[in-house]
Write a structure and sequence with these properties.
Helices cover 81% and strands 0% of the residues. The protein is mainly alpha-helical and 401 residues long. The longest helix has 31 residues. The chain is globular. The chain starts with 8 loop residues before the first helix and ends in an 8-residue tail after the last helix.
């Protein structure tokens, strides 16, 4: 089996970064197609939103276990298998007329995506050390943010020109192309496989989860991304039903949301001054203030541009928080990179799936004020977790060991 060495490390790193946006692409590219898919499958708004929730749940749960599997059995072959199945599942969605088959395929896609993304994040920890490791892991959330920028905008164009199936053709072709490139150029990065012994595996999980600063990071990451997902799932219906605009406008709204995440992530990577806690708590308070202004002005303003201005500010701050805390969590336990990656992303996605579906189930989001109400729930959670874990985030371990 081919291994990653000095000769193919660069191309393997590039392929990893090309695959990192897969989870965002799989969730965001078909957002502008929600209303059309709801009509095509004769289901409700909630019914089509469930395709997103099921992906998030399966993706999140799978990552909790994928880390220990790839730490024991390697990254490369499992990655190839996952890419192949992911590719096939998209063509099944295109061919079916049954929404329950779509649900099943989205669950399968979530599992496959977990193997792919956790493996690629662990690869960067495997092949780099020291400042290089921190540099590349801090790029993860920035690269990931390209999907929310590009995917909905591209999806809106595809929906408007060819219909909802075009988005799943895109995912299928992307998966197939990456399968061929990985097969041709990449390789195995795991140097020392960990014995897959259940008691030992459980001890690692227990140690990581019981570390307060690490578990606080998982909760904050999940709450931050919940804001993005609530907006993403509500935006098509706000744009097309409340403001009576096209799917292309939905794509533009998602584009600005994604750009704000991207810029916030770059700022998080670039800001070197200040402690971890001071950066996070300042950002959390600032975000809460913006949400409060968004809520209070909601009854007096019924304008999509104004609503999007608040969305951009809130998501930009969220991108900053996400980058800072994701880098911290991924580098916190380098000796258990796969498990740490799996728990970080898997746990945060479970928080996101539970939080976003819970808020959408309780609050009918149809405009600026109701969206601000949903945001406020997650803002309170973020501030509460940061205040509760503050004494650990200020400690020396907060530097990320």
């Amino acid at each position: 089996m081919r291994r990653i060495n000095e000769h193919n490390r660069r191309i393997s790193t590039i392929l990893s970064f090309i695959l990192i946006p897969l989870s965002g692409l799989a969730t965001d590219v078909y957002l502008p197609s929600f209303p059309d898919m709801a009509a095509a499958f004769n289901t409700t708004e909630a019914g089509i939103q469930q395709t997103m929730v099921l992906f998030l749940v399966s993706y999140g749960i799978s990552q909790l276990f994928v880390g220990s599997i790839i730490d024991s059995f390697g990254r490369y072959r499992l990655n190839l298998l996952a890419l192949f199945i992911f590719t096939a599942s998209n063509f099944v969605i295109i061919a079916t007329k049954d929404i329950h088959v779509v649900y099943m395929m989205r669950v399968i896609q979530g599992i496959c995506t977990a193997f792919i993304i956790v493996g690629k994040r662990a690869l960067l920890v495997d092949v780099y050390t020291g400042e290089q490791r921190k540099h590349y892991t801090s790029l993860l959330s920035i690269i990931w943010a390209t999907a929310p920028i590009v995917a909905p905008f591209l999806g809106g164009f595809l929906q408007n020109s060819f219909g909802w199936t075009a988005n799943f053709y895109l995912l299928g072709i992307y998966g197939l192309a990456m399968f061929l490139l990985e097969w041709s150029f990449s390789g195995e990065s795991l140097h020392t496989p960990q014995p897959f012994q259940l008691p030992a595996v459980l001890r690692v999980y227990r140690r990581l989860i019981s570390t307060p600063d690490f578990s606080a990071g998982v909760l904050v990451l999940g709450a931050s991304y919940s804001m993005v997902m609530v907006f993403s799932m509500a935006a098509p219906f706000i744009v097309e039903h409340t403001f009576h605009l096209s799917a292309i406008t939905t794509g533009y709204c998602a584009l600005f949301s994604g750009l704000s995440l991207f810029v916030g992530g770059i700022f998080g990577k670039s800001l070197k001054t200040g402690s971890l806690y001071s950066k996070l708590i300042t950002a959390g308070i600032l975000q809460a203030v913006v949400i409060a202004v968004m809520f209070t002005t909601g009854p007096f303003i019924n304008s999509l541009p104004v609503m999007m201005l608040f969305v951009v500010l809130i998501h930009g701050i969220g991108g900053f928080v996400y980058n800072v805390f994701l880098t911290y969590c991924l580098t916190r336990f380098p000796q258990n990179a796969g498990v740490a990656s799996g728990i970080t992303s898997g746990g945060s996605y479970l928080v996101t799936s539970a939080g976003s579906s819970g808020v959408l189930g309780i609050i009918t989001i149809s405009g600026q004020q109701s969206l601000a109400t949903g945001y406020f729930v997650f803002s309170l959670l973020i501030l509460g977790v940061l205040l509760a874990a503050g004494y650990r985030l200020k400690a020396p371990a907060g530097a990320g060991a």
